[in-house]
Design a protein that fits this description.
The protein contains eleven helices and nine strands. Helices cover 41% and strands 19% of the residues. The radius of gyration is 42 Å and the shape is elongated. Helix 1 runs parallel beside helix 4 (55-94), helix 2 (26-37) runs antiparallel to helix 4 (55-94) and helix 5 crosses helix 10 (318-326). The structure holds adenosine-5'-[phenylalaninyl-phosphate].
Length: 348
């Protein structure tokens, strides 16, 4: 083999080893491999040029080339192992987790007491065979009043002081318009058994027991042969499910233009158990809702022949129930979003 070849090979080897020592990551290592051992490398070119040599020279150069190639490959492998180990150590260090550190506090929200009460009441009525439906908060005078047997000049309008948006549009003052909307949607089919939770609005002065915006849950049952005793039995089952098996309800005569007869429904005072206290003003009873048998005129206006069908309806204030359930003395606490108040419901 000529000295020129020998020197050239030695120079290639030295340079390759020097640049290999400088390769410090996997990418540089790969680049080195292509550059030093690839087809277009100096070694590759020499292998190609070997074809033109005399057989003896070709053998000697071939052996020398192979040796160098093997030596460089070996060097590449050990460098690769070194770099891989270094990179792995770095990655492990970067991803190191100190399992002894205290966990980060994830602030937990709590379900609002009104939402809780709504869910609880929904569950009770669903178990009694009712479905839950919702309706619009912006209503028409027609549905909020007229189809509920409260014409424009009727004194009963004063019972619910109204936020009017225009002459015809208003913020619903109660969930009762959904009685009519539900019957219209059912188009004469029976049985109807729905409850309707939702926000309602009245121009009431805010005080400890009144809010200008509050939550009602309407109930409506329509079928053949529905009687007042069905209303009482349903409400009694509801009261027992919500406040315990010793609860009872009391019906007192009342007046709503859309029910006949109408009643107000009381529970045994949850604070004193009926003996009389400040909360029940010494009576032993607490009013929770208004109810009655659906007025025949409302049935007829909604497409249900009142000669054939009867029904009962009720409307309760969810805030009132939440206040009884959680011993809240002022309805405004339910709307002020004071975290000190709301946090108490985290584990309730
Ligand atoms: C009604 O709104 C009738 N629609 C209820 C009804 C439905 C009767 C179906 C018959 C058949 P009333 O105005 O009494 O009735 O309101 C019902 C409940 O809402 C009350 O018992 C009370 O718990 C609650 N409520 C009334 N006004 C307010 C207010 N300003 N703030 C908080 N809760 C209120």
């Amino acid at each position: 083999m000529s000295d020129t070849w020998r020197h050239e090979l030695e120079a290639i080897r030295e340079q390759a080893m020097a640049s290999l020592a400088l390769a410090s990551d996997s990418k540089a290592l790969n680049d080195w491999r292509v550059e030093v051992l690839g087809k277009k490398s100096a070694l590759g070119q020499m292998s190609k040029a070997m074809g033109g040599l005399a057989p003896e020279d070709r053998r000697v150069l071939g052996e020398a080339l192979n040796r160098i190639r093997q030596e460089l490959e070996q060097a590449w492998r050990s460098r690769q192992a070194e770099i891989e180990a270094k990179e792995k150590a770095l990655r492990l260090e970067r991803e190191r987790i100190d399992v002894t550190l205290p966990g980060r506090d994830v602030p937990l929200g709590a379900m609002h007491p009104i939402s809780r009460v709504i869910e609880e009441i929904e569950d009770i009525f669903v178990s009694l065979g009712f479905s839950v439906v919702e309706g619009p908060e912006v209503e028409t005078d027609h549905y909020n009043f007229e189809l509920l047997n409260i014409p424009k000049d009727h004194p009963a309008r004063d019972m619910q002081d109204t936020f009017y948006l225009t002459d015809e549009w208003l913020l619903r003052t109660h969930t009762s318009p959904m009685q009519v909307r539900t019957m219209e949607r059912m188009r004469g089919r029976t049985p109807i058994r729905v409850i309707v939770p939702g926000r309602v609005y009245r121009r009431d002065e805010d005080d400890a027991t009144h809010s200008h915006q509050f939550t009602q849950i309407e109930g409506l049952v329509v079928d053949e042969g529905i009687r007042m005793s069905d209303l009482k039995g349903t409400l009694e089952a509801f009261a027992k499910a919500l406040f315990g098996p010793s609860q009872r309800v009391r019906l007192r005569p009342s007046y709503f233009p859309f029910t006949e007869p109408s009643c107000e429904v009381d529970l045994v005072c949850v604070s004193c158990g009926g003996s009389g206290c400040r909360m029940c003003k010494g009576t032993g009873w607490i009013e929770i809702l208004g109810a009655g048998m659906v007025h025949p005129r409302v049935l007829d206006m909604s497409g249900y022949d009142s000669a054939r069908y009867t029904g009962f309806a009720f409307g309760l204030g969810a805030e009132r129930i939440a206040m009884l359930r959680y011993g809240i003395s002022d309805i405004r606490m339910l709307y002020q979003n004071d975290l000190r108040f709301l946090r108490q419901f985290r584990h309730a």
